Amino acid sequence: MKSITRFIGSSVLSLLTLLLLLAAAMPVFAADADFKTVSSEVLRDMLEEKRVFTLVDARTNDEYQVAHLVNAISIPDKEFDKNIALLPRDKGALIVFYCNGVKCGKSKKVAAKAREAGYTNLTVYADGFPVWEEKGYPIVAGPEYAKKIETTKFTPAQLKQILAEKKDAYVLVDVRDEFEFAEGHIEGAINIPAETFAAKSGVLPKGKGIIVYCNSGGRSYSAYRKLMKLAYPSIFQSILAEWKEAGFPVVKSKL
């Protein structure tokens, strides 16, 4: 009987210990929870209606200077402590954070630091600057915004060799319209039209090289710039017209 009593007592003690450990762990889980998010359209309406909130650009200062959302203030992750005074005194005031899209973690990092500082009404604009810009919503552009960039290009011969020997290390993206893609594209390519490229870029892995192409270079140049803003580390451009001129084949697909 005594052994049973000891067993029950030991079990209860173990259960209480487990409950205490879980209770201690709960704040950690809460701290890691995702933040509320806001869509591009809702954020646009908030700005147009002049709602009272603080909009925080969590990207680098250089990126902020090139272009940023209207009314945004710059608080990069590594400079949070230095710039915390820019946040409202009211710890319950609404603050919206953004960076360079769904694969950019800077907005959540800065929001987490704001939460640690006691702020409670925090929201993340997950689509970020590239999608906002793509939708044609208002931005503040600096003198470097329209500066032309030099893309890294693959010749038709280089692209053909890559597709034959290293295709698993790259993703080939046709940025033309869907009907153009159906009429003839490079085999193995996926289709993400340039007009919605940033919004749909989440399917592209950052661990691979991304090759964008269009007929003559204009739309793939635009997609290339968007990939840069989305912080893709390995980006390349090719031209479909040159591919065809080299005598290389295209394949058709159904709409």
Average residue pLDDT: 89
CATH homologous superfamily caption of the largest domain: Rhodanese-like domain
Instruction: Provide the spatial order of strands within the biggest beta sheet.
Output: 1-6-5-2-4
Share in β-strands: 15-25%
* Computed structural class: alpha/beta
Main beta sheet: 5 strands, parallel
Number of helices: 10
CATH classification class of the largest domain:
Alpha Beta
Order of helices and strands: HEHEHEEHEHEHEHEHEEHEH
Number of strands: 11
CATH-defined architecture of the largest domain:
3-Layer(aba) Sandwich
Taken together, the total number of domains comes to: 2
Computed over alpha carbons, the radius of gyration is 25 Å
CATH topology of the largest domain: Oxidized Rhodanese, domain 1
End-to-end C-alpha gap: 77 Å
Describe the structure.
This protein is α/β, with parallel strands linked by helices. It folds into 2 domains: 36-141, 3-Layer(aba) Sandwich (Oxidized Rhodanese, domain 1), CATH 3.40.250; 156-245, Oxidized Rhodanese, domain 1, CATH 3.40.250. It is built from 10 helices and 11 strands. The strands form 3 sheets. Strands 1-6-5-2-4 form a 5-stranded parallel sheet, covered by helices on one side. Strands 9-8-10-11 form a 4-stranded parallel sheet, with helices on both faces. Strands 3-7 form a two-stranded antiparallel sheet. The longest helix is centred in the first third of the chain and has 30 residues, at 2-31. It is elongated, with a radius of gyration of 25 Å. The N and C termini lie far apart (77 Å). Residues 1-30 form the signal peptide. Pfam families: Rhodanese. It comes from Geomonas diazotrophica. This is Rhodanese-like domain-containing protein.
